[in-house]
UniProtKB/TrEMBL annotation:
BP GO terms, sorted: fructose 6-phosphate metabolic process; protein N-linked glycosylation; UDP-N-acetylglucosamine metabolic process
Tree of life domain: Bacteria
Domain SIS: 303-443, 476-621
Signal peptide: none
Top EC class for this record: transferase
Keywords: Aminotransferase, Glutamine amidotransferase, Repeat, Transferase
Residue ranges of domain Glutamine amidotransferase type-2 in the record: 2-227
Family annotation (PANTHER family): GLUCOSAMINE--FRUCTOSE-6-PHOSPHATE AMINOTRANSFERASE, ISOMERIZING (PTHR10937), GLUTAMINE--FRUCTOSE-6-PHOSPHATE TRANSAMINASE (ISOMERIZING) (PTHR10937:SF0)
Residue runs in coiled coils: none
Reaction catalyzed: D-fructose 6-phosphate + L-glutamine = D-glucosamine 6-phosphate + L-glutamate
Protein name according to UniProt: Glutamine--fructose-6-phosphate aminotransferase [isomerizing]
Its EC number(s): 2.6.1.16
Organism: Candidatus Nomurabacteria bacterium CG2_30_43_9
Database matches in Pfam families: GATase_6, SIS
């Protein structure tokens, strides 16, 4: 939530295009408003707009707003906002100034004690121009300066007064050769080039400039400056600034992670849906042994005994990651026979979960690795004595760094705000994990081998599913979007229930329409009351042991004149014969536990095309942010 950019360079140039292109790469973090500030000839110049950088920062206008001096700029900051305190408006957009307009800051996070700080600052004569929590920061620094502190001390004093979470970047006319950064709870790193340092909320914003980074940890600051014609930095802790730290310089080498373009696709979401076969392949690659029929999860290697002895599994996650965990739960319970409890992280944090930490292994699942509820759940679980593992997509993210160990979901950058390929990658990890836990609990090598062979086939079958279903799903989505359906429910049984939940989430996020999801058998216990000619039921029912039961439920819906789309496999389609319902056919699988990998594809496409038919922005649905770093 919110994206920060800061550039300092000893090679003066027009920094505005670099700031804008980095902000565009961070749009997934927030896109309701945006702003840039640079120091120009001893003054701070600022432009703020409502909307996303790619929609509002057009070349002509920006060139006019920032007239580039002949010797260029050496320092600037930028921000994309996802409003938490104060509605999206130019006044609330970052960068924010102090009263004197001598310093500008951008902030990602939430300041919990801003109301009391604001009151105090107002009583000291400060004037606030926004309704944000952030604006207390520049005024606190200004106040500390007035009381005699140096710029750096004022910055660090201020950071130490803030409760909540922050990633902050500061520039000031008092020292135009200095970019100050501080982090607590919100991600912040800086990239290193020969004559330039670039701060950002995420490495993907600046990978086109550098793949060498230093990531700040909670409670750390960085002082980036231009000295004697070159850039330099020091890093320390906010509460003990004199104690300097030597930090590891990280290099991102995986080129696929750097692909942040839409390529041939018209949207990131469509690209990411179509990347799923290769994501699945990459996620399982090198993580199993065909000879032994076992999964080989290097990240968990030091915890083999704990996994072997675990009596139960607990998952914590939010949104799509929770839905993937629910599928994972069915896999682990079915294959390994261990009870699994899947908790929504925002609930887990505040409730009593009567599980025994020493007998339980906890898996935190998250695409971003930043989700506040999941991160706090992990911290809480660790305090209680659980061993915590991660299934995380973003390497080096906060959750990945907090858990004891884990397995990365190798989905690459997911830019579309509605998660698609991360879900598939999480499923891939859960299949491997379930096989691993099962092999330790009596699954024969033969059975393990069989499952792994089928798992290897999944990427090809995913491609086939996309090819076979996309046009029919598109037609159906457009048909129902134009029909103005009043009610839509996604239904299934067993392992298909979490798929219906994920389908409904995707549908809500993209179409802005309410959608329900139920176990099919529950229909008759209430939800059937909504079925009529204006209701649509999407039923996930490939041919399996519950097929006949599912047919019963289908009849019940049809008898109430409901509209139906069935997602079934080739055998299921044959068995159904001529039906007055639309059928989307996916390939038949030997092992029915693997169906989620294929079913999800037409369900994602359905939400995607329905939203497009309504004229919605599929990459940046309204009100959402890619990483939910607030509670
Ligand atoms: C998915 O489409 C959502 N945008 C959202 O539910 C997301 O899955 C959730 O916020 C969890 O995010 P994480 O995986 O980054 O932790």
């Amino acid at each position: 939530m919110c994206g920060i950019i800061g550039i300092i360079t000893s090679e003066k140039r027009n920094l505005i295009p670099e700031i804008i292109s980095s902000l565009k790469n961070l749009e997934y973090r927030g896109y309701d408003s945006t702003g840039i500030a640079i120091i120009d000839n001893g003054n701070i110049k600022r432009v703020r707009r409502i909307g996303a950088p790619s929609d509002v920062f057009h070349n002509q206008e920006i060139t006019e707003a920032f007239e580039v001096p002949s010797d260029g700029f050496s320092i600037g900051i930028g921000h994309n906002r996802w409003a938490t305190h104060g509605k999206p408006s130019e006044e609330n957009a970052h960068p924010h100034f102090d009263c004197g307009g001598n310093l500008a800051i951008v902030h990602n996070g939430t300041i919990l004690n801003y109301e009391s700080l604001r009151k105090e600052l107002i009583s000291l004569g400060h004037t606030f121009l926004s309704t944000t929590d952030t604006e207390v920061i520049p005024h606190l620094i200004e106040q500390s300066r007035k009381e005699g502190a140096s710029l750096k001390d004022a910055f660090l004093n201020t950071a130490s007064l803030l409760h909540g979470s922050f990633g902050i970047a500061l520039i000031s006319t008092d020292d135009p050769n200095r970019l100050l950064l501080a982090k607590h709870g919100s991600p912040l790193l800086f990239g290193i080039l020969d004559n330039t340092l670039i701060a950002a909320s995420s490495s993907n914003a600046i990978l086109s400039y550098t793949n060498t980074f230093i990531a700040l940890a909670d409670g750390e600051y960085a002082d980036l400056s231009i000295k004697e014609g070159s850039v330099t930095y020091i890093i320390g802790t906010i509460l003990d600034p004199e104690k300097l730290l030597t930090k590891e310089v990280m290099t991102i080498t995986d080129k696929s992670l750097g692909d942040m373009t839409k390529g041939e696709y018209e949207s990131f979401m469509k690209k990411e849906i179509h990347e799923q076969p290769s994501v699945f392949r990459t996620t399982i690659l090198g993580r199993y042994d065909e000879e032994t029929g076992d999964a080989v999860l290097g990240g968990l290697i030091d915890y083999e005994e704990i996994l072997r002895n675990a009596k139960q599994v607990l998952t914590v996650a939010c949104g799509t990651a929770h839905n993937a965990s629910l599928v994972g739960g069915v896999l682990i319970e079915t294959l390994a026979g261990i009870p699994v409890r899947s908790e929504i992280a925002s609930e887990f944090r505040y409730k009593k979960v009567p599980m025994i930490p020493t007998e339980t292994v906890l898996f935190a699942v998250s695409q971003s690795g930043e989700t506040a509820d999941t991160l706090e759940s992990v911290k809480e679980a660790r305090r209680k004595g659980y061993k915590t593992f991660g299934i995380i997509n973003v390497v080096g993210s906060a959750i990945a760094e907090t858990v004891d160990a884990g397995v990365y979901a190798r989905a690459g950058f997911e830019i579309g705000v509605a998660s698609t390929k991360a879900f598939t990658a999480q499923l891939a990890v859960f299949y491997l994990l379930a096989i691993k836990l099962a092999r330790e609990r009596g699954m024969t090598p033969q059975k393990g081998k069989g499952l792994l062979t089928e798992l290897e086939e999944i990427p090809n079958l995913m491609t086939k599913t996309l090819v076979d279903t996309e046009s029919i799903v598109r037609e159906l989505a457009e048909h129902y979007a134009n029909k103005n359906i009043c009610t839509i429910n996604f239904l299934g049984r067993g392992i298909h229930v979490p798929l219906s939940t994920e389908a409904a989430l995707k549908f809500k996020e993209l179409t802005y329409l309410e959608a329900g999801s139920y176990p099919l058998g529950e229909l008759k216990h209430g939800p059937i009351a909504v079925i009529d000619n204006d209701a649509l039921s999407v039923i996930i029912m490939p041919y399996d042991e519950l097929f006949e039961l599912n047919k019963n439920s289908l009849e019940q819906i049809l008898s109430k004149s409901g509209n139906v789309i069935l997602i079934t496999d080739e055998i299921g389609a044959k068995k159904l014969g001529a039906q007055s319902v639309d059928i989307v056919v996916i390939p038949t699988l030997k092992n029915t536990l693997l169906y989620p990998t294929l079913e999800i594809l037409p369900l994602q496409l359905f939400a995607y095309y329905y939203a497009l038919a309504l004229g919605n922005n599929v990459d940046k649905p309204r009100n959402l942010a890619k990483s939910v770093t607030v509670e």
